[in-house]
C-alpha cells in the first residue's frame, strides 16, 4: 500500500500503473475521440453558409423550454394547471414549446436529408437523430394522455386499439394515468435527453458534412474510410 | 489513426475530408440566441393562444346529461355485448376478436393482462357496495341466485325495453317487460352514476389512492355520449382525429402518416377488421426505414438527384466557379 | 373557469374547430397552417442569404 504514503513525485512503476488504469484509458480514449477544440469548436468550415443550419440549435432551444416548463409544472403536480391561471400559462408554454420543437426538428430533418448529412461515416448521427424523433413522438403522446381532461380521455381510449393490437398494450396501458405520467416525466424525457446528447456529440466528433463534390469524384476513385473531420487544431 | 480500406467511392455514402477553409463561428452565441428566440416565440404564442382544457367526462356528467344512453350502455356491460366486454385481450378472453397479421395475432399471444369483467366490475360490483337499499339487495340476491339462462332472458328483455326508455321529470322510465330484477339494478346504478358514487366506486375498486383509470375510461368510452362528443370535435379515427386537437388548436400533426393509412383502402375496406395491427406494423417498418435512410439504395441518392444541396451550399459552389 | 382572463389566451381558440375537406383528406385549419408554415420556413431557410462576418464577397 505504498500509494497511501507517496510524495508528490511519482515513481516509474506508478506511472506505468496509472497509464494502465481503466480511468486513464477511458480519459485517453475520450480525449482522442473528442479533443476540446473539436467538442467546442470556434471555427466552422467555410461552406457553412445557410439558415438551414440553425434548426438543430432551435430544436435544442425548444427542448430546453419543454424541460424547464415541465419542471415548473412538476412543482405543483399534474392537477395544478386546471385550477391556477399561472399553471394554465405554464401549460400553454409547455404545449407551444412542443409544437415548436417538432416544427424545428422536422425542418432540421428535411435539411439534413437534402444535404445527405450521413455521408463520411456520419450514419450513426442520422440514426440517433431519427431515433430521437421517434422517442419524442412517444414523449409527446404520453404528455397528451397525461393532461387529465377530455383530450387525454379521448386520445387514450382511441390509441389503446392500435397499441393493444401489437400486444404492447398489455404492458404499456395508455388508460393507466399513473403509468403514462411516469413515462412522460421520467423515462421518455431521460431517453430524449440522452439521445440528443449522443446526437450532438456525434455531430461534434465528425464535424458538419462537406458539400457534394460535383464533377470531382467519379466512381473509380477509392476512399479512405474512417477518416474524421473537425476543426483544425 | 486512419485506417485505409480500398472501397469504391460512393457519393451518397462517402466524402473526402474537407480541405477548404475554416472561418470563425460562435456556436455558444448561436445556441443562446436560438434559445432566446424560442423563448420569445413560446411566451408570445402562450399569451396569444393559451392552451385547450376541455373538462373530462365523468360517469356522473354522462349519466346526468343522458340517462338513457347510460342505462343502455349499462345493460350491455351486464349482458356482455358492450365494446369492452367483446374486446378480447388484453382485457378479457373472447374468441376470434383479436386482430391478426397473416395467421399471427400478437394480442392473443400476449393474452389477458388487464382483466376486465364488465358485468362484475361495471355493474354488480358497484351495486354490491350499496348496503342501505333493501330493494336493491333483494334484486341482487334474486339475480345472483338465478340460472345463467334466466339471467340472459332478463337481460335481453331489458335490453329491448330500454331502447324505448324516456326521461320523465328527471327520472329514467323503462317500459315494463319481463326483465325481473335487472330493472331495479340498472335504475339503482343510474342513480349511483348520477350522484357521482359510481365514479368513486370504479376508481377505488382496489385501492384508496387511484392512479389507474382503465375501467372508468373503458366504461365512459362504451357510451355514445362520449364518442358523439369526440366526433363533434373531429377527433374520430376516420376523421384523421389522431392528429387533431380540441377547438382550433394545432394537434399532433407529426402523426399525419400514422393517421393517413386509416383513411384509405385497403385499410378502410378489406383490411378494416385488422387495420390497427396492419397500420402499426406498417408504421414500424417505415420507422425502421427512416432510421436506415443512409443505407437504403435509391432513397439515399434522392438528395444528390434533387440538387437541393446546390441551393443550400450555393455560396460554396459560387466560390469555386 | 378562473384565470383565462388574467394569463389566459388573447385569441380564444376554444371554439368549434374549422376543418378543410378535400376528398378523403380532412385537416384542421390549425394543423394546415402549422404544416404550411413548416414548408414555408424550410424554403425561406434555404432561399434567404446567410451573411456572416468575414464571409466571402
UniProtKB/TrEMBL annotation, chain A:
GO biological process assignments: respiratory electron transport chain
Ranges of residues in domain Cytochrome b/b6 N-terminal region profile: 18-212
InterPro entries, alphabetized: Cyt_b/b6_N (IPR005797), Cytb/b6-like_sf (IPR027387), Di-haem_cyt_TM (IPR016174)
Region Disordered: start-end pairs: 1-20
Membrane-spanning parts: 51-73, 93-111, 123-145, 181-201
Keywords: Membrane, Transmembrane, Transmembrane helix
GO molecular function: electron transfer activity; oxidoreductase activity
Gene Ontology, cellular component aspect: membrane
Protein name: Unannotated protein
Organism (species): freshwater metagenome
Automatic annotation (TrEMBL), chain B:
Transmembrane portions of the chain: 31-50, 277-297
Keyword Transmembrane helix: yes
Keywords: Membrane, Transmembrane, Transmembrane helix
Protein name (database record): Unannotated protein
TrEMBL record, chain C:
Keywords: Membrane, Transmembrane, Transmembrane helix
Parts of the chain that traverse the membrane: 20-48
Name recorded for this polypeptide: Unannotated protein
Native species: freshwater metagenome
